[in-house]
Design goal:
With 338 residues, the chain is of the alpha/beta class. 48% of the residues lie in helices and 15% in strands. Helix 8 packs across helix 10 and helix 10 packs antiparallel against helix 11. The longest helix is centred in the C-terminal third of the chain and has 18 residues.
């Protein structure tokens, strides 16, 4: 199982420390660095800086949404990043959610899975320098233009970050990798893998062609309560407030995991702006299901459990209490590939 690292996309941590973090990941043998994008820094600009400051680590969007850029612009950016990094780029795509797409970008959040499918088709056409003529349900392109520049590679790995059963099937059908968040190893065989398999069967391919890359929060600490408390703000935000009451895919995910009443209660509290209460309503079981918390060796064992489950890659969202830089570096070194 390959280990990568996700980095913050805000300015809560100084840029020079983030860059040092990535350079250390490169030195320590981590496979990929993933940069998210929501309403902070944009992913491509930050990855360009990382590409110029590293030697071997792969550089990935983890993830960018398919609403705020056209498919052609996504492909142009991917080709540019691949050239700057000398063939080290990975393109992570997703739909994001109503809050970001409509509330931030002002774009209707509609038919996300169809848009994701057509975007992947068009990106692959552009990278192969084919004349782009495409007649889809979302996109209608008849100009026949092809990419002027010559990409380092005519195929770039595309990972899809999807959560719904339909989205998971799409990843199984056409992606190079699937990148889930809030991944439950307990539910992989019964709830998740069958959907990936349906997608692979529809495309007539093997699931071995798909890399399962889990976006995994990891809190390295001897204090389990402090570790759980560090995980609460993000979990409460996503389960409770990342979308409307009817269209919150993270909330629906936890309901499928069996936390129907808990997820509904957290959402009610969060939407009523009772955020501290929403965080407190997260049960230890909910947090421990999707978060790795503990000393370094215990974290390594939990990562090994993911590998035994069938996970191929992990993008570690690494935390330590108070995010002390020296402690973060020690955790990076302790979890580094051996």
């Amino acid at each position: 199982m390959r280990l990568g690292l996700s980095v913050p996309y805000s300015d809560q941590i100084p840029r020079e420390l983030i860059l040092a973090f990535v350079q250390n990941a490169d030195r320590l043998g981590y496979d990929t660095v993933w940069v998210a994008e929501a309403y902070g820094w944009d992913a491509f600009t930050i990855l360009s800086q990382f590409a110029c400051a590293t030697q071997r680590i792969k550089l990935a969007t983890g993830i960018v949404n398919v609403f705020s850029r056209s498919p052609a612009l996504i492909a142009q950016s991917a080709a540019s990043m691949d050239q700057i990094s000398n063939g080290r780029f990975v393109l992570g795509l997703g739909t994001s959610g109503h809050q970001v797409v409509q509330g931030w970008h002002g774009v209707p959040f509609e038919r996300g899975i169809r848009r994701l499918r057509e975007t992947v088709d068009i990106v692959r056409m552009v990278l192969k320098r084919e004349p782009v003529r495409y007649e889809g349900e979302i996109f209608h392109l008849d100009g026949g233009l092809k990419l002027i520049t010559h990409p380092v590679r005519d195929t770039i790995p595309i990972y899809l970050a999807t959560l719904t059963p339909t989205g998971i099937r799409l990843a199984g059908e056409l992606a190079d990798g699937w990148m889930p968040v809030f991944f439950s190893p307990r539910h992989y065989e019964t709830l998740i893998k069958p959907e990936l398999q349906k997608g692979a069967d529809a495309a007539g391919r093997s699931l071995d062609d798909l890399s399962v890359c889990v976006s995994q929060p990891v809190v390295v600490t001897d204090d389990r309560k402090a570790g759980r408390d560090a995980a609460r703000p993000a979990l409460a935000l996503y389960i409770g407030g990342m979308g409307s009451r009817e269209k919150n895919y993270y909330n629906q995910l936890f309901r499928r995991y069996g936390f129907e009443a808990e997820a509904a209660h957290i959402q009610d509290l969060y939407l009523e702006r009772r955020r501290e209460e929403a965080m407190a309503a997260l049960t230890d079981e909910m947090i421990d299901l999707v978060t790795i918390i503990g000393p370094v060796e215990e974290c390594r064992e939990r990562l090994a459990e993911l590998e035994r489950t069938g996970v191929d890659e992990v993008a570690l969202a690494l935390q330590v209490p108070d995010n002390d830089p020296a402690a973060v570096l020690a955790a990076m070194e302790g979890l580094a590939p051996r």
